[in-house]
Amino acid sequence: MTKWTNNVRTVVPYTPGEQPKTKVIKLNTNENPYPPSPLVGKAISSVAMDTLRKYPDPNCSNLTAAIAKYHGFDTENVFVGVGSDDVLAMSFLTFFNSTQPVFFPDITYSFYDVWADLFRIPYETKALDSQFKINPADYDKECGGIVIPNPNAPTGIAEPVSFFEDIISKHPECVVIIDEAYVDFGSQSCVDLVRKYDNVLVVRTFSKSRSMAGNRIGYALGSKELIKYLSDCKFSFNSYTMDAITLAAGVASIEDDEYFNEKLKAVIKTREWTKQALTELGFTFPDSKSNFIFAKHESVEASYLFQELKKKGIYVRYFSKPQRISNYLRISIGTDDEMQKFINELREIIKGV
Ligand code: PMP
Questions:
Q1: Which of 191, 136, 193 is nearest to 159 (CA)?
Q2: Where in the chain are the domains?
Q3: Are 312 and 8 in contact (CB under 8 A)?
Q4: In testing the pocket of ligand 1, which one of 207, 253, 292 has its CB within 8 Å of the most ligand atoms?
Q5: Class in CATH terms, 24-35+258-351
């Protein structure tokens, strides 16, 4: 007789960035350094206790309506989930049910290959060029699906809408997912392509630009047909994915556009002076349009800098694999004060080598 372990679905899970319990300067998971809109706090505290007795709205109607209105779509064009990880995982399950491989870059969000493995989806990674750019010609072949973040992570490099339209127009045979987790920090959104192509899914999150990683809200915009398929899979898995408090918080965030834009501007401003300061310290990096910078020092090893910064209570992200990026640090943008402290410590560490 065979052993029960033969029937286990074994996977190598995604490794999330550390969430230390002590107070540190946390530049390792691309969170927003500012709190969410004050309206979010108000909405959360006004959720009546009796609301928690009942199941939440399975259709997330208020949040879906707020997102639809914000982007100028109908509610049937919107799907919401527990962070964009949930939305992306459900999208892989729903749309990549093909025997042909799904294409994505070799250096990208490291959850894509995990979901593909989990759902037994065949995939092929396409190597970024020496400047970490995506070569669109690599995506010219018929395939089971395409997923690309814009800007890409962890490089921070953004491409214009025309770049994606070029790829999408050649692929009526599959769903193309554009992961716009970081798009609000200064790059072009592909949302309008959703109005033109019925096979484009744009996925977004409240975790970064809306400072709500702790709530877990993500969403997708797509044709009504795509969203219907996505909802059918979600309702075959778990009807009540989003809790009542989070649903109320999400609506409040969408309603405070002024605060949202003000904080975006602040992060972008800090990112730009941080680039300058890093250059002066001898770092090089692709030009980031996101809330992080992917940087390499001219002489000091990234793994050493990572460890030394950690000793000083500054957490950045270091990926030892793949080899091509093992000498880079991914540095999330904090407040001006946090970034100044980070730069000062970095200067000292480099001096001491
Ligand atoms: N896409 C990309 C490219 C990301 O970097 C992240 C953050 N880890 C996500 C999606 C998921 O974000 P969340 O689940 O918080 O919405």
A1: 136
A2: 24-35+258-351, 38-255
A3: no
A4: 207
A5: alpha beta
Torsion sign, CA atoms 47, 50, 52, 57: negative
pLDDT along the chain (353 residues), means of 10: 94 92 95 98 97 96 98 98 98 98 97 97 98 97 98 98 98 98 98 98 98 98 98 97 97 98 98 98 98 98 98 96 94 98 98 94
81 CA distance to ligand 1 middle (Å): 12
Torsion region of 89: left, alpha or beta (phi above 0 gives left; psi -120 to 50 gives alpha): alpha
pTM over 0.85: yes
- Selecting from 3.40.50.880, 3.90.870.10, 3.30.420.40, 3.40.640.10, what CATH number does the domain 38-255 have? 3.40.640.10
Residues with CB under 6 A from ligand 1: 83-85, 109, 149, 153, 179, 181, 205, 207, 213, 218
